[in-house]
């Protein structure tokens, strides 16, 4: 069982009571609402299912959510072989961007890769300091600048340093909130253009960090970022501390973006790959005997 899904699973089990081989459609609907699956998605999921739903019925329905236009078109992260692999980390403040950067850096370092961090959230002195502390703790390099400096210039310097030092991975933090949304959008668009320029138009990744405790309400945030930047994948944080694990279905369906990993704690090693089959099995295990 995934640790991150523990609370959701427990909550569903408590709500449903004794597990049976089949479940009435209206009771399943209530259980899915309880797990914070978006209501529009519940309707879509249950629309063609019978009044008594078996494990197999629901499994087939859930599998559809992890596909693109056709059943064989699986939503997956596109491979990039640019060196260094640059990952721009975006999301609102408080979602866990800085800690996730540390977890990614730690993972790459454990794979014997040379990692460089870019402290690109120059609008918060605390974000720069926090990333410096993590870089020392993990033992990876960092490029930083003064509070209030131009984040695009920092991104360019970090990528240039990554190329010059033959780094395998460059992970760049970004601001999550400026004084209005237009400012944030313009700043992020500028950073992505500068990243493309520094990489001579080679591809790089834009990874969105979402706070799992926000449940389905994080989807509006995600849509805004995705419309701005065409995000490549999502990492969900803090899911181990919430019973809103059903929001994963909403995120996958609304955005058609791959979930790369799940953050499950505060430590540098607390990042697990998202396994679609394992997630579906856990979901079904919490409902059916």
Automatic annotation (TrEMBL):
Known catalytic reactions: GTP + H2O = GDP + phosphate + H(+)
Keyword hit for Ion transport: no
UniProt entry keywords in alphabetical sequence: Cell membrane, Cytoplasm, GTP-binding, Hydrolase, Membrane, Nucleotide-binding, Receptor
One Gene Ontology biological process: SRP-dependent cotranslational protein targeting to membrane
Domain (SRP54-type proteins GTP-binding): residue spans on this chain: 84-285
Main location: membrane
Localization per record: Cell membrane; Cytoplasm
Protein family per UniProt: Belongs to the GTP-binding SRP family. FtsY subfamily.
Protein name: Signal recognition particle receptor FtsY
Organism: Helicobacter anseris
Lineage, highest ranks first: Bacteria, Pseudomonadati, Campylobacterota, Epsilonproteobacteria, Campylobacterales
Gene: ftsY
């Amino acid at each position: 069982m995934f640790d991150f899904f523990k609370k959701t699973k427990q909550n569903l089990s408590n709500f449903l009571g004794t597990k049976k081989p089949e479940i009435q459609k209206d009771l399943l609907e209530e259980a899915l609402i309880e797990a914070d699956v978006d209501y529009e998605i519940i309707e879509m999921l249950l629309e063609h299912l019978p009044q008594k739903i078996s494990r197999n019925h629901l499994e087939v329905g859930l599998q559809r959510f992890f596909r693109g236009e056709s059943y064989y078109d699986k939503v997956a992260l596109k491979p990039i072989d640019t060196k260094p692999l640059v990952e721009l980390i975006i999301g609102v403040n408080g979602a866990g961007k800085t800690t996730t950067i540390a977890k990614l850096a730690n993972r790459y370092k454990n794979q014997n890769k040379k990692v460089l961090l870019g402290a690109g959230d120059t609008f918060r002195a605390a974000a720069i300091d926090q990333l410096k502390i993590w870089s020392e703790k993990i033992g990876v390099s960092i490029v930083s600048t003064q509070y209030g400096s131009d984040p695009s210039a920092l991104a360019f310097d970090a990528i240039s340093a990554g190329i010059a030092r033959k780094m395998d991975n460059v992970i760049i933090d970004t601001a999550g909130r400026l004084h209005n949304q237009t400012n944030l959008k313009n700043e992020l668009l500028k950073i992505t253009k500068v990243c493309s320029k520094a990489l001579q138009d080679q591809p790089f990744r834009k990874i969105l960090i979402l706070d799992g405790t926000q449940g389905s309400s994080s989807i509006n945030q995600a849509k805004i970022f995705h419309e701005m930047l065409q995000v490549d994948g999502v990492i969900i944080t803090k899911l181990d501390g919430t019973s809103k694990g059903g929001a994963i279905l909403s995120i996958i369906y609304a955005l058609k973006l791959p979930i790369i990993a799940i953050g499950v704690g505060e430590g540098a090693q607390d990042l697990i790959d998202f396994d679609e089959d394992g997630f579906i099995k856990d979901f079904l295990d919490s409902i059916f005997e």
